[in-house]
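Example A, followed by Example B.
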Amino acid sequence: MKLSPTDELGTVHGDLKAYDYLIDKQSFSTSHDTKAMFTLKSEGQSNHLMKMWIKGSENQQIFSVMAPESDGISRGTAPAEMMGHKIPTLVLRRNEEAWNSPFTVILNPYIEGENQIISNVDFLESDSRTGIQMIKVEHSDGITEDLIIATTSENDILEKDELYFQGLLAIQRESENQLEFIFASGLRRYSHSGWEISSRTENVTLSIERSEAGFTLQNDKPVSIRVPKDLNPAYVEIYEEGKLIGKRVGVVSERSNQVEFKFEKPFDKVIMVLGK
């Protein structure tokens, strides 16, 4: 993109006084998704890189500026090349309500020549009335994919194809079309890929992660989890303070081809053992 010098971002335009400390201001406007790259060259070391995927939006400006030297970093927290220098900075600005049209970015830091983790980011359709965001992140291994859903309220609902989500945040990772983990926060209900998670009383935060035996679970509120029957969940082991306190089997639902496990309180660790 071609950058043009600008005098925007300053008190002369009614902005915050802090913007007056920015110099070498350049900008461009685009409604398209944009990818930025930050490069930090280090003597005797590989370059430090940061890729940044920016979701496009109408009325959005992207500024490249230089910010003042930072007093908040030190040689113990940042590369020596940043000490005593102005800092290249990217600023996003949108002339509408960010509450209903939030900024969405994905950041991918890595070392040049090493695995950069992310190969592509797609900002999928979102609801401009609620600010719900849905993002697909493809990994560089070619087999792993993340689905990220972010909302502005625990009461927001996203319903798309076979996906249903009511809550604040959900991240689902699949590798070779198999579930690797789910993390969800402020969750009331989640349904996708044959899994269904719901809380009837309070919004729950939980994690489900693939392990050697099957899956390891944690939850901070009572929750019901329905697992695809074809995974053959045999039983769950429940732990408290690191000790096994019990085992239980799930309830099989022939109608939905799922096995349901109910957890009546928070558990630090639950292991779902899959049958052979």
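Example B, a separate protein, is given below in the same form.
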Amino acid sequence: MLNIAIDDSNTFYRKGMESFLREFFLNEKNKTLNFEKLTRFNINDADIIVQSFSAGEEYSCHPKLKYRRKSGLLIGLYEKDRGKLIHPLPTCIQNIVFINRTDSLNECREKINSAWDERPTFSKGKKSKKCHQCKYLKLTPRQILIAKQMLHGQDISKIALSMGINVKTVSAHKRLMMDKFNLHSDFELMLFFDSLRSHSAPLHLFS
């Protein structure tokens, strides 16, 4: 039996994914499945991890995922078109297979079948060592201050006034953050900031 841990807030899609995976692995691999919600306590027992990603999130640090030890499959769910990768992925998700929520069943089947056959093997020691060399993207100290105020509903002019800098400087930092993480709208930027609460907890963006 394979253990599958899922982290996705979209209940309808999650149930559909569970049904699809159950049928796929039973018919294609002759495997039965056990489903659980992904937590830091069951991550090391998971043969397959399904993790949703907001735009830009794939380039940031993933504290839960970096400690997984099993040779398994990592599936990333995302909205719309990701386009081409503009930066190398963090060490912990380099072997991820991305699935767009609009992919057809045949497209999902092809991606998962290929990724399952090519899944990597690694040990905890090797993984921990690689984490120290990981080149994941992060915000600068000034960008963190701007992000905090944006999350609290402040517009660019108020942020500039409170920080004692030019409005154009704040706008430039906002654009740099969007370009760095391949974000295309203010909505995607705010979703990305929200994701940092769990992926980069030391930032305390909501404090």
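On Example B: The radius of gyration is 19 Å.
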